[in-house]
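To whoever picks this up:

The parser on our side crashed when reading a file containing two proteins. I've narrowed it down to the boundary between the first structure block and the second sequence. Both blocks are reproduced below exactly, byte for byte. First block:
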Amino acid sequence: DLRFLTKPVLIGHYEQDSIAGAEALIDRELLAGDLGQRYNLGLYAGPRGAATVVLRAPTEQERRRGSLSGAVVTGLGAYDGNLSVDDLTEAVRTGVLRYLLQVVDVLGKDTRELPLATLLLGYNSSANLTVAASVEALLRGVMEANSRFHETTRLDIRVSRLEIVELYQDTAITAAYALRQMPERLADLT
């Protein structure tokens, strides 16, 4: 249940879409309307290459653990059914880079490994992407963001744990099977 997440969650948003579904639940239940506020101000992800990060100020316990809660919204571009694995990988990379920068702003430059939750992006709204393609794009995007962030900043801050959150059991099982295939498919990134 998304309402019980204790880490930031990555979600995708198409241009010109309203905040609905899981995104609306996250906005309402976890962020007290902060996503909607940014949307209404015109400061919301939608175009590819855009990302919006909302992090909650950490409690003392979260600060000791080095964890945060919030949302990372990454722009998926126009909803035209042409979202590719490369497009989704780019969107995930952008969202994760913005997240890492925001963590530096909130928690500082100390070495840390961060968890991130994510929905399966793109597969349910694009005829081109399967669950396996979504899983691959998520993992590639996170790995590429970690690498680029370190190369550019020389900081040892990275997303070390990615948890996929899925409501439907059959889709979750399909994602688990896809994850088993990923070490071979992602060997070029390690």
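<<boundary where parser fails>>
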Amino acid sequence: HTVASIRAFTMAKYEVQYSDWATVKAWATGNGYTFANPGLKGDNGARTDQHPVTAVSWRDSIIWCNAASQKDGLTPVYYSDAGFSVVQKTSSGTGSIIGAAGSGTIDFPFVNWSANGYRLPTEAEWEYAARYINGSAFTPGNYASGASADTTVFAATDLVAWFGNVVNGTTGNAVTTNPVDTKAPNALGLYHM
């Protein structure tokens, strides 16, 4: 589909690494926030703090964004009421969808688009950030973000992305996480898009 325009936005250069997740989560749990999942250090919970956090849900992620916002003195983005007075602070572990559009539940929060706090990118924002090259040229859809050739060209993709059966830089039987800054960034300086 075509997106008419995207307003200016800022995106972190790395995935949320476990050390950042844990720091905000510790602050959050002492300030009325609850998470359904504790998060893991990388793929198995035994990686370093520089691996991305894993085993968290979308629900946990928006609660974390609100907590990180409040911790940093910013206005949270996700609310349970249309007047933006009740900040979403509780995640849920249920697999069922909770509520319906416009209900303000964890699955359908009210989003304060004017807030200056942290939030997840929209689909259009993520695609723009992943495919951007120079403002007029964009990476084709069959290229990894930042790659110089399509994904069938292993060497080009290997410079910017972990993929296939790669374990800590070597071929293996299972895919694992890796520290967040171990491949080249794309044109915007974003890693692992």
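After patching the parser it read the second block fine. The CA atoms of residues 37 and 57 lie 7 Å apart. Strands lie at 40-41, 53-54, 78-79, 110-111, 166-167, 170-171.
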